[in-house]
Amino acid sequence: MESRALRTLAAAAALGAASATAAPCDAPEHRQFDFWLGEWSVYRADGTLAGTNRIEREYGGCVLHERYTSAASGYAGESLNAYDASRRVWHQTWVDNGGTLLVLDGRLTDGRMVLQGSGPHEGRPAQHRITWTPNADGTVRQLWEVQAAEGRWTVIFDGRYRRK
To answer: 60-88 pLDDT, tens per residue?
Structure first.
């Protein structure tokens, strides 16, 4: 009887050790946005430098932390991005030095990360949709659109990320 109890305790300890070493964000879904990781120079569609962006994995690989700085205007902001396994969506919260709060949710669709949600635009509440597309040459395109009151989507930023 005593050896059975010891075997049960040993098995329970081994199970606890295994679950303690398993990272909570190791599932493939948590790696879907990894193409955005890195140090970037961000260019507008016309080729002018918009700013720099650094995206790092933090908190045990569960969070992508973005830090953006404009090339000229003093504008800066950051976002926290995470895969929400309970809802099966990616989530982004963006804040900046202008007081903007943007809250987006979405998923990887056809190889592109598409996040959509609410936030201000030109002093009014608006729907935002941002699409990140990894390109074969290692760059990433970021297309940011805002939905007008009549339902039409308008591009407000079309940028290309190039690794520094």
So the answer is: 999 999 999 999 989 999 999 999 999 99
Name residue 117's beta-bridge partners: 104, 128
Q: What CATH number was assigned to the domain covering residues 25-163?
A: 2.40.128.20
Instruction: Give me the phi and psi of 9, to 5 degrees please.
Output: -65, -40
80-129 pLDDT per residue, tens = 999 999 999 999 999 999 999 999 999 999 999 999 998 888 888 899 99
* 115 vs 135: CA distance, rounded Å: 18
Query: Left, alpha or beta for 83 (phi > 0: left; psi -120 to 50: alpha)?
Result: beta
Can you say how many angstroms the Cα of residue 99 is from the centroid of all Cα atoms in its chain? 20
Q: Where are the domains of the chain?
A: 25-163
Strand 153-163 to strand 140-147: parallel, antiparallel, or no bridges (unpaired)?
Answer: antiparallel
